[in-house]
Amino acid sequence: MSDIKTNRKREPKIIFPTQIIEKKYVGELKGYYVENTNCYNVLPFDDTANLNENKIYPIGFILPINPFRFVDKEIASQIQYLKLEEPATPNDIVSKIQQALQNHTEDKYFYGEDYRTEASNFCEIYAVTLDHELALNNDVDVKTKLKAALRFDRMKSWIKEVFIKGLYLHPDGKFVLQARWEYIIHERSAVVGYWEDDELHFVQLGSRRECKQDKYSLKLDVFSRNTGILESDIMLKKGAMFIGCGSVGSLFALELAKAGIGRFLLIDNDIFGYHNICRHQCGVYDVGRYKTDALKERILQVNPYAEVVTKNMTVQDVPVTELVEFCDKNTIVIGGADNREGDLYANNIAQQIEMPFMSIGCWERAFAGEIFYCLPSNMPNYRDFMEVSGLLSARVSQNRRFYTTEEELEKISFEPGISADINFVTIIAVKMALDILNTDNENYTQRLLPYLTQYTLVCNTNNKQIGGETAEIFSYPLQVTTSIIVPYSKQ
Known about the structure:
Strand order of the largest sheet: 12-11-10-4-2-3-1-13
CATH class of the largest domain: Alpha Beta
Radius of gyration: 31 Å
Number of helices: 17
Number of strands: 20
Largest sheet: 8 strands, mixed
Structural class: alpha/beta
Distance between the termini: 81 Å
């Protein structure tokens, strides 16, 4: 008995965006089908959604009428058949329609052959309503008009051939043409939707089973668990500019995307390699790509409507006009470069445009990390911090972006630490960034900003075997400092 339950196919289910209902959409559906769960995921299809076309494919379509309604045997018994050769040419159709009209009386209707097949490489569409004046035009291309009648102009890739089976005159005065479409996609898993009495239905063609429907709205559903904590309407207007898209920047960006941030500017000239996989949010299939492009794809998997701009260059090579164009008071600058000089340059941009700024860096082996932030005014900035920090910071700098070549970098001995340690430091910085982005939101409750100072040290371990003598400045593992004050520099 247990084996039967295990092998039984799950009820077909289709997950689709609410915009299909709102627009009463007719046309092709794109997304993907998960066979072992028997689930269809229809992805957003409007022009503002940023989707990876290489990872989605046609999974079905929606028709304006019920394509199965005219298979009813009761209807078939009330009509007289008018059979056509298969496949029929446009002239054959016109000739037969004209003959049907000449023989037509009020009590005689014409119907096509009741065609059924179990062949997996055919999908059956049983009825298409066409205006008879259109069909009587001797110049009509029946295939073209047939597609247009069902709004198949967006679905040409599906149709390989059309076979006309027959026609009849429906009591409403329109001809119904019965046809069979042979599809390029030879899948019984295709799903067909149709509108009937303003209700949307979906049927899995292979099993002829009605699909359970699950509608979603990206804004309401993707970020619904944030409601009451983070307001989606506010967060979607916020932006973040990332200087560096490595282990820190990739995690930071994805967490902000999950929090609902709607705008991203990613700046990094580095290429993702196998040695990055153990610490980065991207993986094997991203090797050889710019880190910015790989990260952009990950962000859009969270929110396809996010605005993501990439600059595959060093931050100082990006024209300031382009930075100014993207940034505003609702944007935070995240310095995650692998050197202080990169973060200092980013801080200068933030000061110029009057934006908040954060710098996140890890110490050797990521036994600890540091977080610095400053608001646009009335606070010491990152230049002040660099001039007064002295020996307090043990942040490791590769100087990659400004002072070294790829060949020189290979000679540098640097142990950046494991992902878990880097992520612990980064997550605390993410929480502080959310506080900073919501300083003007009276409905938001600050988490960390009231308790942490401008310069925060985060300890993963105070074991000297990992952190050396510097590790002794921490009293215990996982310590987060709350008392370090950054003064203004004397300059």
